[in-house]
Every structure is written in structure tokens, then in C-alpha cells.
Amino acid sequence: SGVLATLPRLKFIQSLWMGVNDLLLDETFPRHVPLSRLVDPGMVAAMGETVLAHVLDLHRDLYRYRDQQIRREWHKFPQRRAQECRVGILGLGVLGTDAAKKLRALGFQVAGWSRRLKTIEGVDGYTGAEGLKSLLSETNILVCLLPLTDSTTGIINKALIAELPRGASVVNLSRGAHIVEQDLLDALDGGHLSRAVLDVFNVEPLAPSHPFWVHPRITVTPHVAAVTDPVTSLPKVVENIERVCSGRQPRDLVNIESGY
Ligand code: NDP
């Protein structure tokens, strides 16, 4: 941190990640310089696949069958239709919208929460605190794709989890600080939540001693839900630099006030 503030003639900052929360944490960040985040089509595609993979894994009970296999148990769980499963997505931005459409195509019931109301065919849109409550009350699988800002830090806490029906699962693919870790562990251990899939953590890499590693109902992946793809992102970076050099506005500008 502090490096960007030492560059007085800086005209434009292109993030090489979709999330810019780390950049904005730097108190010396030059807030007057336009900042664009990376909206990388390869990354969007990868995140869509990751969401589908985890939702299908939960919906088709594949985790439970993996547990059974370890114990050499042969037991069939009831088969549910995708239409009976409701996926609630926190954040209907570039990533949330893409995931919502893909889940709809597979027949899942999909709801999404955003700051401004979004209209996506077949997807129930919600906003505000009341909207969040309504979404949560009917959600079986909660997927977090929010940016990390002051208003979303710690959003997945005891109170939010309590609004989910018993047996729901949480999939966090955006930033670790969205989750209050102890509240999540308590809800898993108390049986209110059945499973959590976590790709991102407060401190990365996750410490070897962290309880998440060995929890029987937590899946840990090392922040790989979607990584920057040089092949698909480079043209976006080049285009933005060309736009700035020719006096046009760069694409995907971050609203510094909102933090995303
Ligand atoms: P966008 O900026 O496109 O979308 C953010 C969404 O969140 C918008 O719908 C926005 O609402 C909504 N939102 C923001 N603040 C609030 C709030 N306070 N209340 C309700 N809704 C809110 O982001 P992306 O979809 O591109 O990315 C989301 C995040 O995913 C990134 O910030 C990053 O942290 C994470 N990420 C994780 C990766 C991984 O590998 N694990 C890879 C890439 C990204 P509105 O539409 O009204 O603005």
C-alpha cells in the first residue's frame, strides 16, 4: 500500500481483479484518479461454473454420498427436483446475474438481492432489509456474490443465518469478511445450517490450525472460484487504456463512494 500515492501524474488505474476492496483499503489511495475494475469474461464464465458446481453438489447430495463412501454405506437419499430448490443470490451484479441465469436454465427457483432492483427474467429480485428477509426465508442454498464494502462486511452473521430455514446451506465465493466465522460455526454445529462451501477467508491462506479445515460440513477451496484469465482479460485492459489515451471514459469504473 502507499505506492499509488507516490505517482503524481497517474491518470488511470486498472485493477486486475473484479473486487477492488483491497485497493480501497489503502488510506493513501488517490481517490481522484479513475479506477476501473476488471470485468473479465473468462472469470465470469468460471464463476458461473463454480456456482453451478456447488449448487448441483448440494442439490444432488453428492457431499453426503462422499461421506457415505468413506463408511462403505449404501443408502439412497430422496431425489428432489430443481424446481423444489430455491437458490438465493446476494449480489446481482455481473457475477450474480450470470449465475442466476445459468441456475434458471437448469430449472432452479432463483431469487437475488441487490441495492437497486434488478429485473432478470424468471428471477425474483429483492432490495433492502425487508427484501433480504423475504429472500432468506425461502432460500435453501444461499450464494454470496456481494462486493466487500462497509455495508456488506459481516453480513452473514447470526441474525442473517437465523432468517434462513433450518437445513439451508451457505456458499461464499466473494470475500471472507462477509462472514462472521464463529456465527457460521455455531449454526453448523447447532444444526441450523447443513453445510458451508467457502472459497474466501478473512486471512488467506487459511491458517493450518483453522477449524474450517477439518469441519465435517465445511468445504474449503483456496480462493479459486474464478481467477483472472490473461487470455480473456488482456483485451479488456488494452481497450480501457486505449479509451483513456483517446480521452474517452474507461469501462467498468468503480464508484469510490459505494466501494464497488
Ligand atoms: P458487481 O459490482 O457487478 O455487483 C455487485 C452486486 O452487489 C450488485 O448487484 C450490487 O447492487 C450488489 N450490492 C452491493 N452492495 C450491496 C448492498 N449493500 N446491499 C445489497 N446489494 C448490494 O460485482 P461482481 O458481480 O463483478 O463481483 C462481486 C464480487 O465477487 C467482487 O466484488 C469480488 O469480491 C468477488 N469475486 C470473487 C472471486 C473469487 O474467485 N472468489 C472472483 C471474482 C470476484 P447494485 O446492482 O444495485 O449495484
Mind explaining what this structure looks like?
With 260 residues, the protein is of the alpha/beta class. The protein contains 8 helices and 9 strands. The strands form 2 sheets. A 7-stranded parallel sheet has the order 5-4-3-6-7-8-9. It has a two-stranded parallel sheet with strand order 1-2. α4 (94-105) links the parallel β3 and β4 (109-113). α2 packs across α4 (94-105). The longest helix has 19 residues, at 41-59. The chain is globular. The structure holds NADPH dihydro-nicotinamide-adenine-dinucleotide phosphate. The site of NADPH dihydro-nicotinamide-adenine-dinucleotide phosphate (NDP) has 30 residues, from α2 and α4. NADPH dihydro-nicotinamide-adenine-dinucleotide phosphate binds at residues 18-19, 43, 47, 91-96, 113-116, 145-149, 151-152, 173-175, 199-200, 223, 225-226, 260.
Layout: helices, strands, pairs:
Layout: E1 13-14, H1 21-25, E2 35-36, H2 41-59, H3 62-70, E3 86-90, H4 94-105, E4 109-113, E5 123-126, H5 128-137, E6 141-144, H6 158-163, E7 168-172, H7 181-189, E8 193-198, E9 218-220, H8 230-245
Parallel strand pairs: 1-2, 3-4, 3-6, 4-5, 6-7, 7-8, 8-9
Helix pairs in contact: 2-4
The structure holds NADPH dihydro-nicotinamide-adenine-dinucleotide phosphate (NDP).
* Largest beta sheet: strand ordering: 5-4-3-6-7-8-9
Total beta strand runs:
9
Mean pLDDT: 97
Total helix count? 8
Distance between the termini: 18 Å
The helix content is: 25-40%
| Low-confidence spans | none
* Strand coverage percent: 5-15%
Attached small molecules: NADPH dihydro-nicotinamide-adenine-dinucleotide phosphate
| H/E series | EHEHHEHEEHEHEHEEH
Q: Please give the radius of gyration in angstroms.
A: 20 Å
Sheet with the most strands, sense and barrel status: 7 strands, parallel
Q: What is the global morphology?
A: globular
Structural class: alpha/beta
